[in-house]
Amino acid sequence: MLPLNLLATVFTAGLAIAASIPPLPGVAEGRPTLDVPTLPEVQAMLARLQGPIISTIISRAALPAESLLYANGGKALTSFIHKTELIALTLNTYEFGSRYDYGSLEYPFTLPAVGPDITTPTNPFPPGRFHQDTFTPNADLLSFYVTTLVPLIEDANTAIAGPGGSSPFYHLKRPSSPVDVDAKYTLDDQLLALLSHWASIGKVVAEVKYRAHVAEFTPLIKSGNVNALRTLLTNTTQEKIVLESANSAAFALATAFEAAQNDPPAIAKAFVSRVQTAVARVYRELIDVTKEVEIQYLLQRFH
Ligand SMILES: *[C@@H]1O[C@H](CO)[C@@H](O)[C@H](O)[C@H]1NC(C)=O
């Protein structure tokens, strides 16, 4: 349940709210049993995240990236994310629980994640039932973000504005160095949470595939055969569909963004193509990181 002592250190007001909330029904006796949907349903959920992911990349590219803000492996960004994650905990409600509860498939970057499931005779976790593991894609995604994505965002921003970047915020005090650091970190935080959620849905993808091929997966899981698991989990036809769809959406959304800005065609063209480059790189990374999520999920499947 809630690490109340953690909240107390930062948000006394939040603590008061959280403390007045009775525990979720059923939590005391054990976790709910969660069965996974069909593969097309899971793919539809991933598709629904495409618009939010790409439009957040575009919104972020409207601001200069400023590599200095991401020094030391994104230390300052991580500390910003930590504060937003603490707020998420204070928003815990009786009816719905919090963003990082069991089964939400949202895993915090800076707080302890929900603990793993343990198979028992009373809950044997039959194929098709979600089994929480300890792996999260967050460290990989944060490192990708800081080292690979920030420079691509910077490129896209300079297409609009030239070196030095451009910001949609209008401050009468200009010209001055950009002061919209919290606006940048807010978008970074939102984008990272979306990417993490996308990749974490890989746990469900893994369970769906395991349910469909129990006899093939079981010996590979038991012998820890990572390469064979990777091969069995890979569907390059489906990957191609996802990459092409992301590319078309990036083109459409970035073109609409540019049309709204009324930029000259050469600038619009450069921005759109740099957004497409960033989105292609993000989706390649998502597919690879998600496969790692699937493999790690399966390796702990019989725990
Ligand atoms: C791979 O993905 C494609 C497209 O979604 C699908 O039609 C095909 O059945 C999948 N192949 C396997 C072996 O699951």
UniProtKB/TrEMBL annotation:
Keywords of this entry: Amino-acid biosynthesis, Aromatic amino acid biosynthesis, Cytoplasm, Isomerase, Phenylalanine biosynthesis, Signal
Matching InterPro entries: Chorismate_II_sf, Chorismate_mutase_AroQ_euk, CM_AroQ_sf_eucaryotic
Residues of the signal peptide: 1-18
MF-aspect GO terms: chorismate mutase activity
Entry-linked Gene3D superfamilies: Chorismate mutase, AroQ class superfamily, eukaryotic (1.10.590.10)
Catalytic activity: chorismate = prephenate
Localization (cell): Cytoplasm
Enzyme Commission number(s) of this protein: 5.4.99.5
A GO CC term attached to the entry: cytoplasm
Biological processes per GO annotation: chorismate metabolic process; L-phenylalanine biosynthetic process
Major subcellular site: cytoplasm
Stated name of the protein: chorismate mutase
Organism encoding this protein: Asterophora parasitica
